[in-house]
Amino acid sequence: MGDDVAVSLDLSNYELLWPTSLFVSEGERILRSTDSWQDRAKWLLTEALAGTTAVADFEDPPNHTAPTDDPWATTATGWGTKVMDQHDWFTELISRAPELRHAVAPRPYWPQRHGNGLAHDGSTARDTRRDFARLIGEFADGGYLVEVFGEDCVDDDSELPDASEVIDRRLGIPDLWPLIPETWDEDTFYGLIEVFHDLVSRPRMRRYHPYSGCGWHHSEFHNGPARTLYRWKVNQLLRSAGIEYELAAEGEDLGRLVAVTDDARSQLVHRALNDSPPDTTAGVRHAIALFRGRDTSAESKRSAIFNLARILEERRALIKEHLHKKDEGALFQIANSFDLRHSNAGQQREYDEAFLDWIFWWYLATVELTNRLIASRNLT
C-alpha cells in the first residue's frame, strides 16, 4: 500500500492587488454564502489578483490532489486521491492568502532612470494628480461609483444622477466630473481624495448584459471593503509621491487626510482609540482629530492637549496611586504653567511649536497607560 500524496496549490503564479486581510475577509464571506458563490468568487479573483491566471485556475482547477480517508486506497491506482474541486481550490487559496506576494510596480524604465519621467514643469505634483485620476477611473470601471453615480443600461432610459452635482454638494466646487487633474489646485486635489473615500462602494456581484453590447452591471454594494481598499491604494500613492499625509483608518477623522506618523505612534493612536472606556472615547477621538488633521494649527494642538488633560485630571487619583508624587505633579504642572489650559499673565508663552507635539504624545501615552490600569482593575 503506497502513501497518499497531497499536492497543494502553487501560489507562485498569483499576485495580490489588495490588502491581505481584506482579501481574506471578502473570501471568507463568499465561502459562507450559497447563492451564486462561484460568480462572487470569480469577481473577487478578478479584482484582487493580478492578471487572469487565478480566474482560469478557478474555472478549471489544475490537477491538484488531496488525501482520502480510505485506508485501502493506493496512489498506484489513483484511488488514494481525490480531485480538488472549485470549492476546495478557493478554500485553500483563502486560507493560504498570507503566503501570496503583493504585486509591485515594474522596475524603472529608461525615462525614469534618467530623470525624464517628470511633468514638463519639472514637478511631480501633476503626475500624482494624474495618477489619482487614473485610480478613480479604475474604481469607476469596477463599479465602485455605481451606487452614487448610477449605471447606464440600454433597457433603462431613466436619468442618471449628475456626478458633478454629487461632488459639488459635498465639496462646494462645481464641474469636477469628468476629472481634469491639470485644473486642480492643492485644496481641490486633497478635497477630492476625501470626497471619493465617502463615495466608493464595492459591488459584490456583477452580471453581464450582452444585449447591444451593454456590458457589466453591478449590485450588492457595501462601502466598508471599498473604503478599506481605497485608503490602502490612495495611501500608497501619497507615500510614493513623498506626500506626508494619509487617509485616517479610524477615529473621528476617518477617511480624512491626517499627518503621517511613525509606526509606534500609529499603534499608540490605535490603542487609545479602541481601548478607551466609553465615557472617555469621544474626548480621545476628538483630541486626536484636532491634533493630526491636515489643517491643524498651534491653537488646535492646544485644544487637543486640553482635551487629554481633562481626561487625565479625572483620573488624577489613579495616577497618584501608580506614579511617584513628583512625576504626577510634573504631569499637571506642564499643562497649568504653560499656555495650554488656562490663560493668565503668569504662564509661559514663548516656546517652539514642537513642544506641543511632545506634550500631546506624552499625554496620549498617559491616557493609554491609565486605560490599561483601569482595564486590569476591572478584571480583578
Key descriptive features of the protein:
mainly alpha, 380 residues, two-stranded parallel sheet, 16 helices, 8 strands, disordered N terminus
Description:
By secondary structure, the chain is mostly helical. It contains 16 helices and eight strands. The strands form four sheets. The chain has a two-stranded parallel sheet. A hairpin with a 5-residue loop joins strand 5 and strand 6. Helix 11 runs antiparallel to helix 12 and helix 12 runs antiparallel to helix 13. The relative contact order is 0.07. The N terminus is likely disordered.
Question: Outline of this structure?
Answer:
Helices cover about 50% and strands about 10% of the residues.
Question: How does the SSE layout of this entry go?
Answer:
Elements: E1 15-16, H1 20-32, H2 37-48, H3 53-59, E2 65-67, E3 81-83, H4 86-95, E4 101-102, H5 110-113, H6 125-141, H7 146-149, H8 163-171, H9 186-199, E5 202-209, E6 215-222, H10 223-240, E7 245-247, E8 257-259, H11 263-275, H12 278-292, H13 298-314, H14 316-322, H15 325-337, H16 354-379
Parallel strand pairs: 1-4
Antiparallel strand pairs: 2-3, 5-6, 7-8
Helix pairs in contact: 1-2, 1-4, 6-10, 9-10, 11-12, 11-16, 12-13, 13-16
Mean pLDDT: 87
Give the termini distance in whole angstroms.
58 Å
Secondary structure: number of strands = 8
**Percent of sequence in beta strands:** 5-15%
Order of strands, widest sheet: 1-4
- Proportion of residues in helical segments: 40-55%
- Using the CA coordinates, give the radius of gyration: 27 Å
Output the number of helix runs. 16
Query: Which secondary-structure class do the elements indicate?
Result: mainly alpha
Question: What order do the SSEs take from the amino end to the carboxyl end, as H and E?
Answer: EHHHEEHEHHHHHEEHEEHHHHHH
Biggest sheet architecture: 2 strands, parallel
* Contiguous uncertain segments of 5+ residues: 1-6, 73-79, 118-122
Overall 3D geometry?
A: globular
**Oligomerization:** single chain
